[in-house]
Amino acid sequence: MKEFILIILAYLIGSIPTAIIVSKAFFNIDIRDYGSGNMGATNTFRVLGPKFGTIVMVGDMLKGILAVALYNLLPYYLTNELDRTNLMIGLGLAAVLGHIYPIWAGFRGGKGVATLFGMVLAIQPIVAINCVGVFLLVLYLTRYVSLSSIIAGVALPICVLWIYNEQEVFYRVFAVAVACLIVLTHQKYISRLIKGNEGSVPILKYRDRKKSRRKEE
Question: In terms of Cα–Cα distance, which of 119, 141, 121, 125 is closest to 64?
Answer without folding.
Answer: 119
